Amino acid sequence: MKKNVLSRREFLKECGLLAGATAVATSFPWMTALSEENQKATDGEKLRVAVVGPGSRGRYHLNFLVRNPKVEVKWLCDIYQPSLDKALEIAPEAKTCKDYRVVLDDPEVDAIYVVTPLDTHKQITVDAFEAGKHVFCEKSLSHTCPDALEMYNAHLRTGKVFFVGQQRLYDPYYLEAIRMIEEGVFGPIEGIKTFWYRNADWRRAVPSPELERLINWRLYRAHSCGLMTELACHQVQLGTWIYKDIPETIMGSGAITFWKDGREVEDNVNVIYTYKDGRRVSFESIISNKFYGLEEQIMGHLGTVEPEKGKYYFEQTPPMPGFLRMINDLEKDIYGDLSFAGPSWDPEIARQNHGEFILGKKRPPRNDGSGYLNDAFVEASLTGKQPPMVAEEGYYATIMSLLGQQAIDEKRIITFPEEFKIDYNYK
Ligand SMILES: NC(=O)c1ccc[n+]([C@@H]2O[C@H](COP(=O)([O-])OP(=O)(O)OC[C@H]3O[C@@H](n4cnc5c(N)ncnc54)[C@H](O)[C@@H]3O)[C@@H](O)[C@H]2O)c1
């Protein structure tokens, strides 16, 4: 217990968020779920949880849940016995079942984790809200935009707590990056370029052919939208978070260019989201080359921040402005004629600027926010208070990913549909 309390305190402190509740409440209102006040109010209480779909991500959450003294894992529910067996190794006291409705009928369950394949999220989540449970649903929320809206509306109608697995909202590096952006350290943000490159086929070994779609659900359109719903939703969320708006239009292009192995989802996509003032968020993913890895490059007039690397860079004047250097070179007769393509006038900013660490020397070990997201869900569910923005950011991240997929599929520019706008002031 003490360890848990301390780690939250350290987290808030590292992010400079212990200075005053006001700072937390204004910049990151969803963090209030982790406030000391909330924590004290829930001391000694237990949230009774069921994990529906304890596969790879579900077991990752389970590891946090079993270490949280405010949680009792009541049920593990999965249609695939090997997933249940592995999950039981983490939570051996839990009961097991194969039908999630058994869990929903249990009045001793307060909250449900929905960690199943994308196409199953909507029904389980809506049924869980109707059964009076709080819900943590993994990203992306749903396979279609109307489904995401139905889920969000079920949360509003029932008043139950709704968290989405967008862990960047609780990642110390992102929080500090956003704080710096909001303080104007990088000047007005003029562009957000995001990319996620891998060199892997995304396939999992299948013990017998009839299990192909259950195990490799990510590769089939009936269950997933591939790179857009699995990866883009984490990164495009920065658009609403930073620009405090949703895009007006979405255009995109995608194809299966390398892994031509029977999959139905693209392995190579590029999508551009354009906001009303013309600024953009772009997302690119290629999974046959991983050289550039994963990053969000947030570019302001005065500097750039890369939260994944945990670094920022101020725009610097090159050692000598390109034009002056050119005159200098000509005066010294280094070049016989005027070559504007000469390499000596490259500003070379990116190569020379090694930047600074976002959290300075005191930076905590890389933590992607998932643990704090879990802790926050538990605290919020115990108090029954929905923190601002968590559900809304998750909702829009899903809608943006799905509209990106639609733009790819229909090969046209999509205008953000009115019917999927929700009442959210982004602040
Ligand atoms: N936030 C993140 O960083 C992150 C990372 C990985 C995965 N995810 C998300 O987590 C979800 C699950 O991904 P995964 O990689 O763990 O998938 P997975 O295939 O490893 O696990 C899914 C589990 O759900 C079970 N299942 C399928 N249908 C079911 C049903 N109707 N009822 C009960 N169980 C059912 C499967 O048998 C499996 O055990 C996806 O939405 C994915 O996008 C999020």
How many strand elements?
A: 15
State the CATH class of the largest domain.
Answer: Alpha Beta
| Continuous helix count | 15
Molecules bound to protein: nicotinamide-adenine-dinucleotide
Main β-sheet description: 9 strands, mixed
pLDDT < 50 runs, ≥5 residues: 1-6
Distance between the termini: 33 Å
Rg (CA only): 23 Å
**Order of neighbouring strands in the sheet with most strands:** 14-13-12-11-7-10-9-8-15
Residue fraction in strands:
15-25%
Classify the secondary structure makeup into a structural class.
alpha/beta
CATH fold-level topology of the largest domain: Dihydrodipicolinate Reductase, domain 2
> In total, how many domains does the architecture comprise?
2
Shape: globular
CATH architecture of the largest domain: 2-Layer Sandwich
| Average of the residue pLDDT scores | 90
Query: Roughly how much helix do the residues carry, as a percent range?
Result: 25-40%
> What is the string of SSEs from the N terminus onward?
HHHEHEHEHEHEHEHEHHEEEEEEHHEHHE
Tell me the name of the CATH homologous superfamily of the largest domain: Dihydrodipicolinate Reductase, domain 2
Structural description of this entry:
The protein is of the alpha/beta class. The chain has two domains: about 1-170 and about 370-385, NAD(P)-binding Rossmann-like Domain (Rossmann fold); about 170-365 and about 395-420, Dihydrodipicolinate Reductase, domain 2 (2-Layer Sandwich). About 35% of the residues lie in helices and about 20% in strands. It has helices at about 1-15, 20-25, 35-40, 55-65, 80-90, 100-105, 120-130, 145-160, 170-180, 210-215, 225-245, 320-330, 350, 370-385, 390-410; strands at about 45-50, 70-75, 95, 110-115, 135, 160-165, 190-195, 250-255, 270-275, 280-285, 295-300, 305, 310-315, 355, 415. It has a nine-stranded mixed β-sheet, with helices on one face. It has a six-stranded parallel β-sheet with strand order 3-2-1-4-5-6, sandwiched between helices. The longest helix is centred in the last third of the chain and has 21 residues, at about 390-410. The radius of gyration is 23 Å and the shape is globular. It starts with a helix and ends in a 12-residue tail after the last strand. Bound molecules: nicotinamide-adenine-dinucleotide.
